[in-house]
Design brief:
Belongs to the Toll-like receptor family. Residues 71-212 form the TIR domain. The chain is an alpha/beta fold and 229 residues long. The chain is built from nine helices and five strands; from the N terminus they run αβαβααβααβαβαα. β4, α7 (180-188) and β5 form a beta-alpha-beta unit. The termini are far apart.
Length: 229
């Protein structure tokens, strides 16, 4: 209580703001936030990355749902650059030249200067189907993983037959354990195997043609895409 005291007796030090204490509190809070963010990123970076791409796919889907009545391509081909020779030597001639499908290939059809993620999203949502050419190199590729994530999101979001899996090599199920998304898809969907079609390639291309023509998951299941030769 300062009533009755003289103004000259007032302790002006009590009115001084302690700048050093405020700086200490501020720097401590900043350090804690950085520490928590670093630990979160270190232990959850894959989940955060996945959530980012899922959000990006959802955003693109909500903005372009009305524009997808007529797709520009029949199929977007997701593949690793190490498998490019097979794609251009086998897949493109059979599907584009022999069967007349229009394919979207990232080395040929992606727009230069546009962010790669936007190109991928536009290719997947601008095509009726996505063909994933799966190999060991494909599973190890970060960008192929992103393409698989966006294609999977579209599959589960639209609940339509939009994803076709083509295995270039026999990969044991035990080797797919680190790739939980691929393993989960194989439990629900049939697939095409190029090695198993070695002696009957025409059957392989016919099954792929049927997959490109199908419009619902039920129809795909009825066609039984898995090649058992």
């Amino acid at each position: 209580n300062c009533k009755g005291k003289k103004l000259l007796d007032l302790n002006v030090q009590s009115c001084v703001v302690d700048i050093s204490f405020i700086c200490f509190i501020s720097s401590t809070c900043v350090n804690i936030v950085i520490l928590v963010a670093s630990f979160t990123f270190h232990f959850s970076r894959f989940q955060l990355t996945y959530a980012y791409y899922i959000f990006l796919a959802w955003l693109y889907d909500s903005r372009n749902r009305q524009k997808r009545a007529a797709c520009r391509y029949d199929a977007f081909v997701s593949y690793n650059s190490h498998d490019e020779a097979w794609v251009y030597r086998e897949l493109v001639p059979h599907l584009e030249q022999d069967q007349g499908w229009r394919l979207c290939l990232h080395h040929r059809d992606f727009l230069p200067g546009k962010p790669i993620v936007e190109n991928i999203a536009e290719a997947i949502y601008g095509s009726r189907k996505t063909i994933c050419v799966v190999s060991r190199r494909y599973l190890q590729s970060e960008w192929c993983s992103k393409e698989m994530q966006l294609a999977s999101f579209r599959l589960f979001d639209e609940r339509e037959d939009v994803l076709i899996l083509v295995f270039l090599e026999d990969i044991p199920s035990s080797h797919l354990s680190p790739y939980y998304r691929m393993k989960r898809l194989l439990k629900r969907r049939s697939y095409l195997s190029w090695p198993r079609a070695a002696q009957h390639p025409q059957l392989f291309w016919e099954k792929l043609r049927q997959a490109l023509r199908s419009t619902t998951t039920e129809e795909e299941d009825r066609l039984r895409l898995t090649v058992t030769l």
